[in-house]
Amino acid sequence: MAPSPGARPRTLFPTALAILALLLSALVGLPGTAHAADPITDPIPERPAASGIGLTVEEYAAFPKTEPPPGPVTDPRLMRQARINYLSELPDRSGRMAVPDLNGKLYLVKDGTPRLYLDIAAAFAPRFFASRGLGQGFGFVTFDPGFRRNGRFYTVHTELASTTTAVPDFRQAATTNYHGVITEWTADDPSADTFSGTRREILRIGFAGTVHGIQQIDFNPTARPHSPDRGLLYVAVGDGSEGFRNSEPQDLSLPHGKILRIDPRGTNSANGKYGIPAGNPFTGTPGALGEIYAYGMRDPHRFSWDPGGSHRMYLGHIGQHAVESVYEVRAGDNFGWSEREAAFVFDKKATDPCAQILPLPEDDEKYGYTYPVAAYDHDPPADWNCRSDVGRAVVGGFVYRGRDLPALRGTYIFGDLVDGRLLFADTKDMRRGSKELAQLYDLMLYDESGKRVTMRDLAGDARVDLRFGQDADGELYLLSKANGKIWKVTGTRTFASCDTGGSRLTHVMDARNWAPVTPSKWRFPGREAVLAEAGVQRPGPRRPFEYAVLTAGREYGDVRIDAEVRIDTPVEVTNRDVILVFDHQSDTRFSYVHLSSDNTIYPHNGIFVVNDADRVRIEDQWNGRTGAPPAITDTAWHRVRVVRCASSGEVAVYLDGSKRPLMTAVDTTLASGRVGFGSFDNTGRLRGLKVSAP
Predict the structure, then answer these.
(1) Which member of 131, 278, 561, 685 has the lowest number of beta carbons within 10 Å of its beta carbon?
(2) Could you tell me which residues come within 8 angstroms of residue 63 by beta carbon, excluding any fewer than 6 positions away?
(3) Share of the chain above pLDDT 70, in %
């Protein structure tokens, strides 16, 4: 039988597990294992959209090189400068920032200078272990809201089971190889810059695997002094890399694959070292752990609370091999793993790993699962081997309520920890129970000199190991294990924001103002430029078949092109398109924006450069397989704006008055040239053309 919340849990043997599975199937409504639906290979076809917003950052701190003890290390992903993985400000008004290094060091940073506060690895040697598994070592630190008075803070670290005689309070059914240990520390002098004091262990959990251990421990910073949530410790416990083969994340008698909520100062737990809050959702459920706050998780990696009026809790949840998710977390939630991966059925029994993601059953509502409010899939390349990891993992961030980034206030800012991609979603769009995921947007990045960069550029490595931090004012920081550096986010800038005011060219639709490639295919009835016949491919590099260059005016560097365009080719033709030309210097040297009705046969929408060679796609939205979403799907007129900044090479394309660009690119191949309009092998029209430049 499953242990009661008041009894000391034991390892569950197979017979007991079978009984428990039957009981909990009735309790939580696990779906059946038979699935007739076809597997899903592209769970979330929609990709994050361009935001046109860039974060400006400046280097804040750099940390000394450390090595994972006890060694030796064979996994190159552990060979980093410093495995820093969080930043938070101490709740004592000192301005000190705490930064844990997985290799065992706890630093306090003041004015950008890190100082060693406590050597966690040395304190627990020789049991301390960080030589295998991406999350092994000194995982996290959090400070009691009353730290200024009581000096208490909490850490989590891992130990090799074979080096200790300690018995875990909880363990998985499989062999226990590692322990995740939560420790309470009490500083003699909370204001000191080096720790001196006492410690006590409050919780020890056994894990079978090297990954998905205890990922984060934290207090709710939005809980007021007299709130029931004040001083309660939230603990994100992964599934120990066992959930893909069993149902332990759904097992309410185990802490694995759960978020726990405990009272570090209480004593009514099974081990007597912490308390179980009476308000927890399963305190009255027979056979369930009262510690559990929410369950059904694979790798609950980072969580935080919105400091705004809602005080909602958000979790960045790392998926198996398909979907990275953000959840809004409430007491009693079941996120479905490992019966679900995000809002899809996960078939543990599938013999083909490429056939594990299935659509939800028609009666899915009866199971009561909570699904993500935002998500993105792994979007693998066409030749991806689904038996391998494509290299995607979400890292949770924060709802921004600070002052330095007004353009992002009220958005949840997060990213991908592997490639360092930065994303955000408006919290107004992150709605529980909605069938629509919140729209995700890409964030750009600029260094102190104003140069556009990526996190890979800043980290100096293809694997960024991105993490986020936040100070007491709600301002954001970006961290990288790759080079052990932290950058402070100091502001935002608008992409392609060069000054294009000054002169404006209009009323240029007379035929005398245009030089078409094939004049006989064009009509200029007075207010329009009409491509009346489709173009044909010409010798030379691959480029648009037919276009007309505006000869009125001059060549432009910084320029804004405002126009209305229409595709006259019938909508039954799936590859309809029009183009707007800029930087035109000759028939084999120019740039253009391609606006298409379809990107399923071939991703036509894009920004291209022709430079005495076949056209090259340059827009940020291109990932090797897909580009921006279809731009024009009808035969109506559409407003298009192209902004080109010659000095930075930035190009932004807007459609129908949207404040968010459809496409963005950076290219300095051609510094200036003329503008124009045309198509590949379709017909179309241009009117209302305005060209603005300094």
Answers:
(1) 278
(2) 81, 82, 84, 99, 101, 107, 114, 484, 485, 486
(3) 94
